[in-house]
Structure formats: C-alpha cells, structure tokens
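TEACHING EXERCISE
Course module: macromolecular assemblies
Task: Read the component lines below, then compare them to the predicted structure of the full complex.
Student: A.B.
Group: 4
Components provided:
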Amino acid sequence: MIPPLSLLVLAFFDARFQSGPLGQACGGGDPWARALDAYPARRHHSPLLQPGKALGRYDLADAASAGRVVAVARATGIGGFVLDCHRVGDQYLTGAECLDAWCDDDFGLAFRWTPPAGPATAADVAALMAAITGFSTLLADGRQVLVVNEPYRLPDPAGTVALLRQAADAAGLRGLYLVATAAEARGGLLDAGFDALLDPGPAQWRSCKPAELLNGYTFLQAEAGQADGGMFDDTIMTYAHFVNSRMVDRPSRGKVLPRVVLDYADWPDHPQGGATLLASTSPTLYRRFLAGALTYVAQHFPEDERLVFIDSWNHWRQRSQIEPTTQFGSTVLDETANGIRQGGYVALTRVGEPTPGRSPGVDYDAIAALCRQIEDELSLSA
Amino acid sequence: MLGGIAITGGRLEAFDFRFSMGPLSPEELLDSATSPPGRYVWEVARRTLARVPGADAVVVSNPLLASRGARLADLLQGGDTLRCPAVLTDAETFPVAYVLPRALFDQGLGRFLCLLSANRAATDAQLLSQLTGQIVPRRQTPLKPLAPLPKITAQGYILGDNLAAWQAQCADAVRLIRSRADWRDLPFAAHHPGHAGDVLFFSLASRLVPPERLAFRAQVVCRTYLDIFRDCGNRLDPIVLDIPPVSRTGNVSDGRYYLDSLARIDPQVRAGTFMVYCRFSKSYSRTPFNLLDQARFALGDPVATLDDTLYGWAAAARLPLGHSRCARPPAPLRVLMQLSGGWPLKAYPARPARVLVQALARLGCAVTVLDAPADLVAAGATPATAGSTDRLAALIRDHHVVLSVDSFPLHFASQVLGHPTVAVFGPTFPGNSDAPRRLGYRVPPPALPCGPCGGYKACPLDEGPECHNHPPPADLVAAILEVAAEAYGGAVLQRGDAA
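Instructor-supplied answer key:
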C-alpha cells in the first residue's frame, strides 16, 4: 500500500456569524447584514457575493447549522478552522464553543491572535490561554497551533513567545506550536522562538507589481475629476502574478507555511481608497495554487508540520470565502476539494525524492556563484 | 460525474462515479485522455456490477455528459416499460445512457463498448444490437435537447472532429460484426500512431497491463515511430501507418487525422480488426495522472487504486525498467542534453542554456547537445543527432548523465533504459510524464507554480516566446552532479567541489 501522507489543510474562519456571546459582543444584530451590506463605489470594485443555498446565512449558535458547516468543510478535505481571538473587555472570545461539538481527531480548531499594541502582559496572555483551552484543537508537532498575526507589533518577540509558552504550561496545554505571520525568516522571528512562519495576507504583503500602472496623463485626468481616482488609491494585483510571487523560490524564504487565497478585495473597509484587490482570479489557478502548496509542504517540512492555510472559509467581506455562493454555487468548494486531492496525490508520487539542495558533497553555493559569474559575462558581452 | 444504475428484478440502485483528481477512491475513475468515451461505459458498467453482483442489467450514462445516477433513475422511471438493451436519448436523438444486459459482460463482450460513438444513438443501437443479437430500441426521455454541445464538455472531452472519429469507429465495428461470423475473436487495435513519446507510453503500458485485462492485440503506429514501438518492447502487434504523424500545430485535428488515416491502412487488416480511436480526446494535463497510467486505462486496465498507479508499489514492481550505465571512466563527466521538445514552449530558453553548458564545461564536463543550435556549440557543447532509437540508446550509454526537457529522449532514458537522468519540466506538469522516483533520477522543481499552462508557442502570462518556469541553470548543474554521484559513486563529485 502507498503510505498515507499527513497533510493538513486549515481554513481561516470568521465565527462572528452567530447570535451567541461572540455575536453579541461584536455588536449584536444581524452579522450577515453587517458583513455584506457594502456597495462598490469604484468601477474596479467587484460586488460582494451572497451565501448560496447549501449553507445559507447560518447562525453558528444553532448547533445544527454549525454542524452543517463543519460537515461541508470535512467533505471538502479541510482538516480544521482557524478562529480569531477577539478581545472583549478583559477576556477573549473565539466562538469555538459553537463548533467544538462537531470536532474530533480528524477535524479540529486552531486560533489566531492579534497582539495588542505595546508589550503583551501576563494577564492578557493568561486570558488568551483561557479562551483557547478545552477544545478539540489542531496539533502540529504534537502541540496546539496558535497563529500570531502582525508579529511586528511585538516590541519583544522573544519575550512574548516565552510568556505564551509559560501561560500555555500554566493552562495545562501540551505546548504551543507558534506560527508568526511573516513572509521570510530574515526578520528573526524563528530565532525568537516561533516554530514556523505563515505567508501574510494580500493586504499585508504586496510582493508583486500592481496590475494597472496609470501614466501621468491619466493621473492629471483623475485629479481633474475626469477619471476614476480610486485606481490610484487602491492596489490591484493580477491573480496569476500574485500566485506566482507567493510560490516562486519559496525555500529561500525559510520555514514559511503557504497561505492560499482564492480572491481578495477589501474595498468595503477602505471606502476612501487604499484597498487591496486581486484581479482576474481563477478557480482553476486557485486549485493549482492549493495543490502546489500541499506538494511544497510535503517536500520541505517535517511530517507533523505540513500545514497549508486557506484564506478563507467565510471572510465574505473580503470576498475571499470558499463557501458556496449564490452566484457560483459550489464551484470553488469543488475546486478546493480537487486541489486537496490533487496535491495529496502529487505529494505521494514524490515520496522518496530527496529534498532539493541537500546532497552531501555538492557545493551548491559554488555552483550558484559560477552560474552567476557566467550570467554576468554574457551580459557584458551582449 | 458518471452515473451507473444496477437493475435487479425491477429494483434500481444508483451509483455515482467521478473522474479522480488523485486519491482514486472506490467512487473514482482514473481520468484518461487517451480513452474513448466508450471505455468509460465499460468501466462504469464493470464497477456497477461489482457493487451489485446479482444485477440483471446496468444503465450507464454517456461519458460525454455529466450525469448523476439519481438523474438517470429519474429518466428511467417515466414512460414505457424499460427494454434491455436500449439506448436512452434526449428529447431528440442524442444518446444519454445505455441499458446493458448482464449477459454482455458474462460473455466477455464488455470491451466492445469501447467502440460506442457516444454521440449517435442510431449507430450505438446498431452496435448493441449486433453484440446482443436483439433489437435495440432508442427510447426518448423527457430531457431537453442537448444540442448544441459545447466545444469542450464539463467532463473535459474535446468534441469537434472527435465526434466524427467516434462515429466512424462505431460504424466500422457494426460493418465488421455483420461481415464476420468470427467477430468475437477479432483483435482490437488502438489507433495511437504518434508522436514519439506517446508511442513510448503506450508501449510501456502494454507491458504493464496484466494479460487478462489487456483488451487490445494491436496498435496503429506511424512508420516513423516503429523503432520506438519495438525498442520499448510493445506487446501489441504493430499496424504500420505510412503517412507522417499528425501535425502538432493543430491545423489537422486528431479526429480528422484518424478519419484520413483509415484509408491508408491495409484494407485486409481493417477487414479483420476493430479500430479504436485512442488519440487524445481530452487535455492530458487535466488530471495529475501519468500518461503511462492513462494509456494503461485505455488498454483495459482499471488502474482502480493508488497502489495500481505507476507510483504505487504494485505497478512499480512490474515496471520493466533497465539499469543502463555509462561504461566510460567517471571523469570527465559526460552529459547528454536534449533542450528542445515537441513544441516551442517546451524548449529550455537559449540564454540559461548557454549558462548551463558553459558552467558544466568549466567544471570539466564534456557536454553533448542533441540538435544543438550554433550558440550552444560556441558555448562548448558538442552537437549530435540521434535519428533512431538505436543511435539514441548508444549516445545515452556513451554519457554518464542525460538531461532532457519533457521529450522522448527523457522518457526513453528514464523509463526504458533506466539511465541516470535529470528531467526538466517547464510548461508541462511533471506528474503527467515523469518516472517513479529512484536513485539516479531527479526532477528539479519548476521555478514557478504556473504549469501546466497549456501554452504552445508563447507564455500565457507574459506572451513571450520562452517559458520562465524551467529550473535555473544552477539547479540543473547541481542535479546533474547529484545524479552522477548516486549512479557512479563519489568520483565525479570532485568536479562539483572544484566549483
């Protein structure tokens, strides 16, 4: 038999779609209306999509609805959700209690924490641990996964990591697998004690050139009010270039887990401009992106740390959701399932392949230097 | 999605099968671009009967259409009493499903379903009639007319001239059965005459399919590729086609080529052979499966589990892989390269190719490039021409390592000879045509995640003539040294250290 590979696909999940404590703490009322009542102000803003019939506008406080959501995610091949930790007063709310009843060893929960401005305090971290303890959690390397968002806000990353680990021990957790949102290992976060890094989201990391660079003529036109000025304020990236820039030369960035994005458009939260938008998105390319990410982690990461993050399951307001929509049905969900299957299969076919660049006795640096030197010589002679 | 229904004493049980994206679970079918739609009718019927061994009949949806079993059951419920065998059609005449008696399979005639046209109900009904000896009615269903069909169906089938090709193979089969009392014993021939790599994959597949599964006894092959057919140990009998292989530019489609080529096949051979159109009727990169597995499926092997695939242990153990090595002393390291492939975008770009050749030359390697352009000769490469598989095999054995883009020399060196090989993939997907992992074989990761892009002459992203997804020269040099060390020991590595 072909040995199974342990590959885990997680999806970022917004648990505020509920009438329970988290929903109430976030303002009460209809969370779907809050998320979806936004209308494009610019011609390049794609309208938000609407939930499809399969799951509808669910209320996670309703156990059956939450169960349906988890069941659909499981059937797609997703291994768990990543929930945001929302600071409410002196405690954190995650909404995990709505989903936990439907979780088990094959489907679990992880958490994402955005540190407050300034140094993290013991009380804050203790409150965080209280919020994420006691659920069916996702494990990496035998430890509970906690994603730390915007780690550059931490004045002392190493101190915060130590504080988190102490608090986890005190809370009785079997340890934390800390993942920092950062594009490459050069920032010293791994040295500070994080176990891995995670690709930042499209708005946090714009490593490919904008799709539309307007010239001075158009600039003057926009300034005079005769062209859409939003084109200057927003950053628009073509999806194909975006995907390429995320996957190209990954090993050189160090231990960075892939974040796979279907679409992204945060214009509802940037009414005055400054939004980040992906253009010409494609479910087919998304499937390849996902399959490629799975193959990559299978080849480059230890067995218990092969995680791929999908951004997102239900971030409707950023148009990145993979849940079924009224407009496109379950096309994207099907492509997600296909991508997971395809990536898993391709990874299996490469079992036994040595990790590139690791053979003893081959001087990779010298070979790279030689090729660069020849490149330079060719450039000079041209 | 393909629907299958088992009918047992008037009771219907519906099953859904889908084209697999990799896991090959029991509900999934290997997606084979070289299988005609009729091959899937046979396979779904076989799977359905395996689920319900006592079934009296099976109903299988037309593989060109996406249809669930439950939908088929709905279509069966209304109207007149269901006859078996029968061809169900839409409100007009397009075949939607086939009602097949169990006896067809008990008599070992399932393979004849490969000959169905899947787009002309009258011809299909005639074929089933000849096979079963019964009158086969065409029964209309309430389904709205399916025409006009798209150019490419949701199942991935490219229609166009393929429709006429499938019709022709079905009509020819009907004529043959009518004219020959011994039709049950006549051989099936896979019409898959080229190109070089395709003949290689079919040849290897013919060796991997267990004899009891092999539905074919012959293969139509262009004379140009007859040496490949033989040197790859094809178990089928060749039916030689004395015309050039189909053009890669698309000015003549595979379907049209099939129709035209029939007139060039010896009439006596045609009068005693069932021709099955096995050229590509889908894009082969639609799924992650190796072309060898796609060919095995076409030839009758169900390839039903991951373990059965080329990368599974069961198939790998049967792979008739050679263990070729260069007999020359390990230094200087001799490297044979093939840097251009079947279409322009497969070619390794000119500038990195010069860097690659120069780097190897400076490391003391002797580099030979097949059909080398002048700039690579100027960079230090020795030009060579293969011409035949004998000559190519001799050239390969005269070099320690082969480096090739996704082209025949790559597959020949890695899958037939088992020579130390570095595989270079750019616009195509490695999993479709690489070899199982072993010592002395490397696939340096492509540089970008954009493949397979389907590009032919130009990159779909920047519209330039070169593919940027090929691994950079430094990765290829390193891979060559790694492979050489694995295959010949540490002596050649000293050269790498000298860098």
